């Protein structure tokens, strides 16, 4: 990094198989996947699937506030990244189940570690907000 | 959760100090904080600060692709949540340093655990994408 404010060369990432993947690099595909995992609806969808196979409408109820369209887009992105498995059941009426893949389970475990910590530390966060809002 | 598709009552969260914070509840403030931590620019900003105190322009270079306005908004939200400390140095020209608070360090540690895993598993993600795109 330059001290004088001049632009650094953009980082490279593992597209040629030589360098590690790097979310700090602008064009690294790992940045998209991190976004799918940690985006508002992506994170809640993975979290909702951590224990259960769920149907679309079950997921929609579990993830309060998500629209049908956003949940559908979220599930497509997670399925394409190999984190969620979609299975159409040959029932009448037809039914579609969603569950985490083994990769999705690994990643969701880490994600839940983060979510659990954020929830646990919310009293500190709210105290900080109160002090910030009062001090300005 | 109801099986027949009727609406469940919205979840409650710890606003009255009785229930735990719950990111799955629509109005829980933990959902906002999770969004600040895991949003595209929030996660990269916390990650960039995990080892160093950085100035605004240093941060901007480290988090490739972020605009001045987005970085400024991101830092304000993280500061208000008590995750980032902002310190104006009495130098000439004036200089503003940003660093993680102890709470920010705890949360960033979990976040980096997730980021490291996503980066490490990108070969699997890219293989899944290839298979998904080829199979449709």
The name of the CATH architecture of chain A is Orthogonal Bundle
- Average pLDDT metric of chain A: 89
**CATH top level label of chain A:** Mainly Alpha
- Pair with the most extensive interface? A-B, 64 and 64 residues
Tell me about the biggest sheet of chain A?
A: 3 strands, antiparallel
What name goes with the CATH superfamily of chain A? Winged helix-like DNA-binding domain superfamily/Winged helix DNA-binding domain
Give the H and E element order of chain A. HHEHHEEHH
Regarding quaternary structure, how should these chains be classified?
Answer: homodimer
Order of strands in the sheet with the most strands of chain A? 1-3-2
How far is it from the N-terminal to the C-terminal residue of chain A, by CA? Answer: 33 Å
Poorly predicted runs of chain A: 1-6
Approximate shape of chain A: flat
CATH third-tier fold name of chain A: Arc Repressor Mutant, subunit A
Task: Specify the helix fraction band of chain A.
Answer: 40-55%
The radius of gyration of chain A is 19 Å
Structural class call of chain A reads mainly alpha
Q: So how many helices of chain A?
A: 6
